[in-house]
Amino acid sequence: MVLNGKLSTELGIKASVDKFYNFFATQLHEMQIHCERVHETKLHQGDDWHHTDTVKHWTYVIDGKVHTCHESVEEVDEKNKKLSYKLFGGDIGENYKDFKLIIEIIDKSDSSAAIKWTIEYVKINEDIDAPNGWMDYVAKLTRDIDAHLVKA
């Protein structure tokens, strides 16, 4: 019975590492403006979008279905351009005991850039599927944000 899991994907981006990291570190409240699968983001608790004590409420679409969850910033690593978010409540809480979304923006040696998404999760029982739909979701999210940042 395997309840713990980890999914990971790395996607190339055209925008600079700094622009991409800055978007997630300081402009997360604009996500719904630039990403078609994000329907709504709002502060649930706190008054600073990027503080570790703040909780946000998300409404988004995965696999054609509307989902909701809460999110809080768990870790910010500016030096390595890495952010970690804890997702809970809503649809996440119905299926997973723990759900962590980790974003790492990577400056490649060949002057290109990539974003690495990692999802670490613990299912509530073995009948729950791995969150594979999230890989498509973060890929589309990456393309939407990258297109916006390239134009900006």
TrEMBL record:
<dbReference type="InterPro" id="IPR000916">
    <property type="entry name" value="Bet_v_I/MLP"/>
</dbReference>
<dbReference type="InterPro" id="IPR023393">
    <property type="entry name" value="START-like_dom_sf"/>
</dbReference>
<dbReference type="Pfam" id="PF00407">
    <property type="entry name" value="Bet_v_1"/>
</dbReference>
<comment type="similarity">
    <text>Belongs to the MLP family.</text>
</comment>
<dbReference type="InterPro" id="IPR052006">
    <property type="entry name" value="MLP-like"/>
</dbReference>
<dbReference type="GO" id="GO:0006952">
    <property type="term" value="P:defense response"/>
</dbReference>
<feature type="domain" description="Bet v I/Major latex protein">
    <location>
        <begin position="2"/>
        <end position="152"/>
    </location>
</feature>
<protein>
    <submittedName>
        <fullName>Pathogenesis-related protein bet V I family protein</fullName>
    </submittedName>
</protein>
